[in-house]
Fold this sequence. Notes:
The protein is an alpha/beta fold. 62% of the residues lie in helices and 14% in strands. It has 21 helices and 16 strands. The strands form three sheets. Strands 8-9-11-12-13-14-15-16 form an eight-stranded mixed beta barrel, surrounded by six helices. Strand 13, helix 16 and strand 14 form a beta-alpha-beta unit. Helix 1 runs antiparallel to helix 2 and helix 11 packs parallel to helix 13. The longest helix is centred in the first third of the chain and has 83 residues. The structure holds ligand C2E and magnesium ion (2 copies). The site of one magnesium ion has 4 residues, from loops. The site of ligand C2E has 25 residues, from strand 9, helix 10, helix 11, strand 11 and strand 13.
Amino acid sequence: VYAQLALMVALGIGLSVATSVMVDDVQHTSTVLLRQDVPKLERFTAFESALLLHQAAIDNDFAYPAEHERFHAVADSTMRAMREQYRTVASEISSSYDSVTLQREFNRLVELDQILRVSLDTRRGSDSTRRQVATFNAYTGRIRELIDGGRRHLQSAVSNSGRLTMERTRWIANLVHLYAGFALLSALSLVYHVRARIRSERELAYLAAHDTMTKLPHRWSFYQEISKLDNVSPPHRRTKRHNDVLPARDAQAHLLLIEADRFDRMVAGIGHAGADEVVLEMALRANQAALANGGEVFRLGDSKFALVLESTPEAVQQLATRLQTSMGTPIAVGHHEIVLSTSMGSAALSRPDQRAIELVQEAEMALHLARQQGSSLVTYCTKLDDQLRDKLAMEAQLRHAIERGELELHYQPQKRMADGELIGFEALLRWHSATGMVSPAEFIPLAEESGLIGLIGDWVLGQASAQAAAWNRELDTPLTIAINISPRQFAQPRFVERVRHHLAQSGVNPRHIELEITEGVLMEQAALSRELLGDLRGLGLQLAIDDFGTGYSSLAYLKRFRVHKLKIDQTFVRQLKAGGEDAEIVKAVISLGHNLGFSVIAEGVELGGDDHPLAEQASLLRQWGCDEIQGYFYGRPMSATAAEAFIAAARPRRLLQA
Length: 658
Ligand code: C2E
Ligand code: MG
Ligand code: MG
């Protein structure tokens, strides 16, 4: 385009230079023509006329003699006129060869004129006079020829300059046509380029505002769109409307955040390409829901979407429920069938002084709580703010819990099915906070979030190892203490080192310590987990997969994890009945575990035994070959002192022997 413009400018300059040169040329020639040649021609003609008049006067008098006086008067006057005209003509052609000849002929004529006039006066009719007249006429003829020659010369100059002018004008016209043609082509090409540019700029703008994979507007566009709500005063706050869906009269701007639960776990299970397919499907489903309700969907993160729409709280609630169901429809990815569970958080722009960014924070808060509580949709209300504040306060208290000695380990016994023997305990953390007992289910996730888990987990490891060492010193048949390891604790870089440290510090036999790691953690970072499990096994520890059956287990991975035990999650055990839904799962897990060379423990066994006809959990588990059980049926979690009494009751003889 620039080259074209430069060429056009250069051609324009060239054209104007050429035109002005040619115009100068034409001007010059026509000036010469008008100022010199044309007057010259006129003067030649005037001279010839005067010459002819004089000749006529002489010839007339010769043929028809007139009165003497009158003839001379006429001849003098024509002679005068002729001389006058001659002078002007002679001065103009003085430089050329012709002027010499003309002068000579004119002088001869003038001389002869004197003689002829005397002859006409004295010897009219004589032969000599006739000859003189003939000579006079011949001179006149010669002068006329010379005049003719000069005139022809001038005429050819005139026609030459005319031709030149014509030629130049034609050139100018041609150049102008050419330039106009070129300008037209350039204009067309400029239009083409400008349009292409506009198109590519539009494409760039689209790409800059949209997520390349899902083609949905992304986080940046979301903030742009949402901040527009701040530019208008409350009663007119409207979101962009799509699909001509008219909002209800009492509709408010709503923000609904949607996120897949445990997305990283899914990525670990089906890979990035598979996860991308799932995200695409999520985008499609969210977008369909948005279009049906006149809203717009944005992709905020991996599996996180925002739906902005104008609606009533009830309608948003219904929409969320429908969306939840639609998201839960299985997605086929390769050989896998993924059933998504999603968490949603919603907030409305309901207060007049509320800013758009607050709306986002409130929806985020609701989503956060939905994810934590495992509920599908949480709608923001001011109460949530309080909940979050409570959480922050609890976090602050937890920081001091270790120093203040508020943490304590309780121990829940585990029983071997084959002989009914006590085989060990699971160490379960208790927090006696200033406000009362706090459940580990509540504060362990909080400790994970705040990073306090490192400190707390370390304390548990130390405490439980020391307890295991102490009890086993007094027993001939050892007890195993199972210690829960939280996901983040497991992922800490110095985890194995810390375990080794506590083993050495307490002097416990590593075989008497069992680490419980949840299934999800192992699957999420399969490669790292395999390596870590190898290291821990190398230390001589026992390893168990906790809460088995609740995560996305990949059987291929499971085979490669070199653990000792599977711990069936209590959700499958609690409702366990012969012929029930969970029965099949539990039976399958037991046989799977055994086939892979693991022992199997069931937790959450509350009731059972042959003596209890309504609840037969324990007897069923024994029947199906489950190796061990743990639960209220056998023993509740208890303090260390109570546990010692439990041990004494379970193994009276051996303790005595010791
Ligand atoms: P978990 O490891 O699956 O522990 C089993 C939970 O089930 C314990 O709850 C236990 O009290 C409970 N339970 C045992 N038998 C029964 C039964 O028959 N019926 C019922 N309803 N419940 C039974 P608890 O002590 O509240 O612990 C909850 C979770 O907190 C644990 O689940 C574990 O994931 C975590 N946790 C506990 N202590 C620690 C710890 O020291 N470190 C870490 N990282 N996590 C811990
Ligand atoms: Mg456990
Ligand atoms: Mg468990």
